[in-house]
Each structure stands twice: as C-alpha cells, then as structure tokens.
C-alpha cells in the first residue's frame, strides 16, 4: 500500500489468485527481474518473450500489445539477461504480493500470470513457448487448460489499472461470480472501517477483503 495504491491492490490479488485456482501459476514481473528475485527468494527461469498491456490506450485493441521481447533492469549487468524476462513460480498469494512489491513503485507496473496444468512437463512446454525465436501466441502458451491474467497498476497521475484475462475456456460466468463476490466483500469491509483503529486491525481485515489467505496455496 502507498498513497496511490490502496485496498484495491488486495482485491486484485484475490481476483488473480481465484481466477487461476487449481493450476500452477508462473509470473513475469515486468522489467524488475532482479528485485523480484530478491523479494521472492528464487532464481527466475529466463525466457525471451513477455506480454504487454498498455492500460492507458483508449480501446481494447490498442491496449493489447501481445508478446514483445523480454526486458529486465540490468542491475547485475549479466549478458545472459540481455533481452530476457524472468519467469517465477507463485506458490501462494504471498508470492504474488512479493512480485508486486518488486514492481509497484514505478509509475505503472505490470505482472503477467500464466496458470497451467500442474507438472514439470507442462512447465517445460510453457518455458519453451516463451523462449522460441518468434513471438508465441496465447494459444501456444495456454494450451487447452491454461488461464492468462495480466495485472497492470498505475501509481502516478494519468496511469490506470487494468486486469486482462484470457483462456480457451469460456470464463464469463466465473468472472461475473468473482466480481460479485468481490463487491460483497468490499461492502462488508467498508462497513467495518470505523473498527480499524490500528495497523494490526487493518492487516487482519485484508484477507477477508481479498478473499484469500497469504500463505495458503
């Protein structure tokens, strides 16, 4: 949380986690690969392609930039990182929060989550699809079961938040149900605001607002 990004971030975390339930989740925190490595405590799998959404563009078509060459802030200046993006495993919602922690203090930050069937063979196909000589398609990356979620959060004035979801399956009813559940939890949270007198009170209220518990897969 900061002066610009407040309780809505907890709602976004819950939506991303619930949309990708029962799948293995892998994320690319755009640009700040080294910071994500530090906050997540894991080495990334380096891939060639990352997804880009321009939340400030005026139409759905112009917002969706598709797969673009990976980029990473050259903190370690390792040649192997040039033109690469870092793919990280998200085991719990806390990992998603840690990935957000790495990127959120920029003017606009973006994390892309690829949720796929569990297992090392499926992970290998995901990494291969993101590492080829030409940009993949979402069909290539997601296959039959996968769910794609791009979360963009604007921090500076003039920048916007965006959640982009894609899957071969029809997720409309699921998205509608999650949106309705989020609205209910937001209303319940707002009714409790006068009781949140301390920071510990506030922190205890966030799991109910998000609909997830940070350390529960």
How would you describe this structure to a colleague?
The protein is α+β, with helices and mostly antiparallel strands and 217 residues long. It has helices spanning 8-19, 33-40, 60-63, 93-103, 120-129, 138-142, 172-191, 199-210; strands spanning 24-29, 45-47, 49-53, 64-69, 85-90, 108-116, 147-154, 162-167. The strands form 2 sheets. Strands 2-5-1-6-7-8 form a 6-stranded antiparallel sheet, with helices on both faces.
Quantity of strands, as a count: 8
List the total number of helices. 8
Mean pLDDT reading: 91
How are the strands ordered across the major sheet?
2-5-1-6-7-8
The percent range for helix content is 25-40%
Distance between the termini: 22 Å
Report strand %: 15-25%
Q: Please give the radius of gyration in angstroms.
A: 17 Å
| Helix-strand pattern | HEHEEHEEHEHHEEHH
Class computed from helices, strands and strand pairing: alpha+beta
Q: Which of globular, elongated, flat, extended, rod-shaped describes the shape?
A: globular
Main sheet characteristics: 6 strands, antiparallel
Low-confidence stretches: none
